[in-house]
Amino acid sequence: MSSHVDVLIVGAGLSGIGAAHQLQAAFPLRTYTILEARDAIGGTWDLFRYPGVRSDSDMHTLGYRFRPWTQAKAIADGPSILEYVRDTAREGGIDRHIRFGHRVVRAEWSTEDSRWTVTATHDGEAVVLTASLLYLCSGYYHYDSGHTPEFPGIENFAGPVVHPQRWPADLDYTGRKVVVIGSGATAVTLVPAMTDRAEHVTMLQRSPTYVMSLPARDAIANRLRRVLGPSRAYFLTRWKNVVMSTLFYQLSRRRPHIARSMIRRAAVRMLPPGYEVDKHFRPRYQPWDQRLCLVPDGDLFRAISTGKASVVTDEIAEFTRDGISLRSGEELAADIVVTATGLRLLAFGGMELSVDGRAVELPKTMAYKGMMLSDVPNFVFTIGYTNASWTLKADLVAEYTARLLRHMDTHGYARFVPTREGPAVTERPLLDFQAGYVLRSMDEFPRSGSRAPWQLGMSYAHDVVSLRHRPVEDGAMRFTRAGQPLRPTPA
User: Fold this and answer.
1) Among 19, 42, 111, 308, whose Cα sits 20 to 30 Å from the Cα of 158?
2) pTM of the predicted structure, to 2 decimals
3) CA neighbours within 13 Å on the CB side: how many for 451?
4) Who contacts 45 (Cβ-Cβ below 8 Å, separation ≥6)?
5) Residue among 442, 445, 435, 460 nearest 185 (CA)
6) Strand 115-122 with 372-373, pairing
7) Residue 141 to residues 44, 45, 180, 344, Cα–Cα distance (Å)
8) What Cα–Cα distance (Å) separates residue 129 from each residue in 99, 113, 124, 134, 329?
9) pLDDT given for residue 387 in this prediction
10) In this structure, how many other beta carbons lie within 10 angstroms of the beta carbon of residue 171?
């Protein structure tokens, strides 16, 4: 592989493989390389190995726009998603462009050369590559470790304490009492999955989360596939699910009391008579202040109904040798504790960025269309939706990047850079989301703005119009040719 490429992609997960597919389809003669810090394709879907790991979005929207999902289950397990990503890479020849075990630590832009110089570490050695475009698909969380609070007395616990992000392959929970700390997507996945072998599984939560049941199989999608074939059925199902999820999101934001009532009634129908629904499944916040948890075919509710699982809403006083002592005075016996307590966010994999020798301070930058940084040339990143499937946005970012490159080819441009000029734009957090893992780290990320094009939108339909159809030249994006100043004075 050459040390210089037209496009350097960082990350060989769902986003990176999708970006590579779209760019090589649009520009067969352009060169590209993918740098992947780990030793395998798949990103999140290769990293997480805990029992029952699955998507919390339907695969007709989490799947790529260009590659129909054809399996019967719409809520897919992790290994099936991983196979889907790897098949996409192999069939497109993308796997031949990946350098595994390369962790990017620094990227330096030179206006004089119109290129990035990127330094990665591989087997303890520094590897340097240059690229005309740097495209980050590395996600936004720390791959090495998750978030675990400091629990009093945790060192006294006699059994193993496991974080789902580092699940031991040899962990045997057969016939054991398991306590899963947390109430998010990982916790509600783990609890029913572990009841197959555990004596009992308890989900210990400090406060409730909204949990909704969704059919694991999309009957309409499967019927359409038989009648119309995979491609047309996939297109229709994708938009059906986008519209349905958008409508429920808008209902949740505009009429939260109606959405709360709908979610509660559905939970009551699936839980045993007399169950304390409001204590364990009625959050203090409004729907979609945080991400809703989806459970396929109500598996969490069914596990509770059979008595194999239970939910305890309380706070931890301290760990003991044989379990957890709660603030209420109750004691939870445990042989194994799983801390499903969230992610640690990490912007751009922790790499250092500089432009013409000046360090880029991320909190002082603003995100353009949620995919570029103000005053950082030839740079693209992917952050998906918080209220819909990640891949919906990732696909659009790749499409827009291809449009941008075609525009540059047509006009002979060598550089692009979003520039904050004109009317004042008020700064806002990049993600307007109340989840704990977001609130803990948002100050380390770029900022969003109060008006377009500096907003990170959360509407797929709006972004389809904006990124797929609106003009590339919008007044905020500046283009220059090689040899010209980076930000020419307007005529």
Assistant:
1) 308
2) 0.93
3) 8
4) 13, 14, 78, 81, 82, 85
5) 435
6) unpaired
7) 10, 14, 21, 6
8) 12, 14, 16, 11, 59
9) 84
10) 13
**CATH class, range 154-339:** alpha beta
**For residue 99, what are the β-bridge partners?**
35
Q: What is the mean pLDDT of each run of 10 residues along the chain (491 residues)?
A: 89 97 97 96 94 93 96 95 98 97 97 96 96 95 84 95 94 97 95 97 96 95 96 96 94 95 96 96 91 93 97 97 96 97 88 96 94 97 90 96 96 95 79 68 86 86 92 92 62 35
In 3-state terms the chain splits into helix, strand, coil percentages (rounded to 5) of 35, 25, 45
404 near 416, Cβ under 8 Å?
yes
The domain limits of the chain are 4-143+344-480, 154-339
CA distances from 182 to 153, 298, 321 (A): 18, 18, 20
222-246 burial, b at 16+ Cβ within 10 Å, e below that, comes to bebbeeeeeeebbebbbebbbeebb
Enter the CATH code of domain 4-143+344-480: 3.50.50.60
CATH topology identical between 4-143+344-480 and 154-339: yes
Two tokens, residue 29 = 């003669």
| Pair type for strands 323-326 and 316-320 | antiparallel
Q: Which residues of 279-291 are buried (b: 16+ CB within 10 A; e: fewer)?
A: ebbbbeeebbbbb
79: amino acid identity, one letter? P
- How far apart CA 35 and CA 8 sit, in angstroms, is 8
Which residue type occupies 224? L
Q: Return all residues near 157 (Cβ < 8 A) that are at least 6 apart.
A: 319, 320, 321, 323, 334, 337
Alpha-carbon span 417 to 352, nearest angstrom: 18
Q: Which residue has tokens 């067969």?
A: 28
